[in-house]
Amino acid sequence: xxxxxxxxxxxxxxxxxxxxxxxxxxxxxxxxxxxxxxxxxxxxxxxxxxxxxxxxxxxxxxxxxxxxxxxxxxxxxxxxxxxxxxxxxxxxxxxxxxxxxxxxxxxxxxxxxxxxxxxxxxxxxxxxxxxxxxxxxxxxxxxxxxxxxxxxxxxxxxxxxxxxxxxxxxxxxxxxxxxxxxxxxxxxxxxxxxxxxxxxxxxxxxxxxxxxxxxxxxxxxxxxxxxxxxxxxxxxxxxxxxxxxxxxxxxxxxxxxxxxxxxxxxxxxxxxxxxxxxxxxxxxxxxxxxxxxxxxxxxxxxxxxxxxxxxxxxxxxxxxxxxxxxxxxxxxxxxxxxxxxxxxxxxxxxxxxxxxxxxxxxxxxxxxxxxxxxxxxxxxxxxxxxxxxxxxxxxxxxxxxxxxxxxxxxxxxxxxxxxxxxxxxxxxx
Length: 429
Ligand SMILES: [Zn+2]
What we know:
Elements (H helix, E strand, L loop, with lengths): L15 E5 L6 H8 L4 E7 H17 L8 E3 L9 H10 L4 E7 L1 H14 L4 E4 L12 E5 L2 E5 L6 E5 H4 L4 H12 L1 H13 L7 H8 L2 H4 L6 H18 L8 H11 L3 E2 L2 E2 L2 H21 L2 H4 L9 H11 L8 H8 L4 H25 L3 H10 L13 H11 L8 H8 L2 H11 L1
Parallel strand pairs: 1-8, 2-3, 2-4, 4-5, 5-8
Antiparallel strand pairs: 6-7, 9-10
Helix pairs in contact: 3-4, 6-10, 6-12, 7-16, 8-10, 11-12, 11-18, 12-16, 12-17, 12-20
């Protein structure tokens, strides 16, 4: 029997990708091919062990493969992506093993980081169609209380069994679907940066996601397509060595709300549901550009601030102190005033029509996006994820401070049009 794998773009850390119903039965062959001579070390939590771990162990034993004693985290309370757990895993990691992460985003990130620490390639067996982080380089972990992307290699092999993905709670698929749908406005953010000559689009990376994306999101129940899209998104980040291809302003809102510890009825909100709300908001902000000719907006543009007033504004936005040390510095390093701001505004004005055309060609309309999310049982209003209007709007302003990546938020801020655009957004959301 030859291993049925889906081709992965050349030169990536991920080399083997299996995605089909019953894929788990190919795991012994996958491990023998991708990790010859290594003894599997299964890592799961109690829930994912019950769903897929036990079965994996059985299949490997039946194939004559001896595993190390598995590491099974407790199932409750919900496992948190703490860097400390990765360090523990790295310390415990047996010699000459291939770690096999059996679980959703958190387990995968913990094992990814532990494998990175030990420089040991690992295999991912996902149990939910929930995030695009399975195949990305880097793990989203809490380090000293702050969520960070810790650099570490992507999985060397992925074995995604659609029968297992189908056993995950429906919310997890909905969350993954929303995350996948964000690649459309994330692409639009890249179009903005490209049009202004700030960060040119890299064609091979672009095509990997943006050509097939509409097919992947066409059916919110099609796990095979959705997982394929999420995996490819991870590959695009591996290729670009940055999350630009997969993450725009909508992800930055989500980072802010996460740092604020956003909850609804005592429950944390999934990544996909946060970026889903972000996706609706950025779509409206981008439609603001599409809808208005710049001549009609000129009198609404407010003058830029002098640096000392901007600093005050930034410090006020960050007053809760839960955002780490970076944002103030990042915000001030990209802040434009005087001649530099005038030049930037002139550039944006000269490109306005091009932006309108390119954004209109890229985006789904606000109504379409909202319907797609609703149909997939994703939240579509800030209140549904526990945000009141003040926290929602604060998140939009603050999101602009945390990354150098140029997005719709920078464009609107620099043009002095943010408040006017937010007026429209408040009417619609
Ligand atoms: Zn995401």
